């Protein structure tokens, strides 16, 4: 997604990430994920993908898939629909993952939230 090719409300987008926790079908260290997808399991799932402000959780996207990316080592993908209420323009995006990220020391002022990514929305 770019400013000249923004995401649209209700469109599915793919987020790539690392460090999202255990999966239901284990993969050997250093091995690529198999063609069939290995979904993330408890305690790290469910989680939320939030579009916009994190204070009210009003822009929570519908997660379609969360797991390993086939043929890659240690790369996760999260397929999520942009909420219809997402305003046009640059929108902040966060993964909120209290089940896993709060079990370790949270960063000050931001427990359970990923880094901020800006997503252009039309």
Task: Lay out the secondary structure.
Layout: E1 12-17, E2 48-51, E3 62-68, E4 76-81, E5 89-96, H1 98-101, E6 117-121
Antiparallel strand pairs: 1-4, 2-5, 3-4, 5-6
Structural notes for this entry:
By secondary structure, this protein is mostly beta strands. The chain has one domain. The chain is 3% helix and 30% strand. A three-stranded antiparallel β-sheet has the order 1-4-3, with no helix packed on it. The longest helix has 4 residues, at 98-101. Residues 103-108 have low confidence and may be disordered.
- Rounded Rg: 15 Å
Report the major sheet: 3 strands, antiparallel
Cross-sheet strand order for the largest sheet:
1-4-3
- What ranges have pLDDT less than 50 throughout 5 or more consecutive residues? 103-108
Give the N-to-C terminal Cα separation: 11 Å
Instruction: Give the CA-based shape.
Output: globular
Strand content: 25-35%
Averaged pLDDT: 81
Discrete helix count: 1
H/E series, N to C?
EEEEEHE
Please give the number of β-strands. Answer: 6
Estimate percent helicity: under 10%
Give the number of domains.
1
Q: Classify the secondary structure makeup into a structural class.
A: mainly beta
Descriptors:
122 residues; 1 helix; globular
Q: In short, what is this structure?
A:
The chain is mainly beta and 122 residues long.
């Amino acid at each position: 997604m770019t400013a000249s090719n923004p995401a649209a409300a209700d469109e599915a987008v793919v987020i790539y990430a690392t460090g999202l926790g255990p999966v239901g079908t284990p993969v050997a260290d250093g091995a690529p994920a198999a063609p069939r997808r290995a979904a993330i399991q408890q305690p790290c799932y469910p989680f939320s993908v939030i579009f916009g402000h994190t204070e009210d959780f009003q822009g929570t996207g519908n997660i379609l898939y969360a797991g390993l990316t086939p043929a890659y080592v240690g790369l996760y993908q999260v397929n999520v629909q942009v909420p219809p209420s997402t305003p046009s323009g640059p929108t902040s995006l966060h993964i909120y993952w209290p089940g896993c990220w709060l079990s370790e020391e949270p960063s000050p002022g931001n427990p359970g939230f990923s880094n901020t990514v800006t997503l252009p929305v039309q």
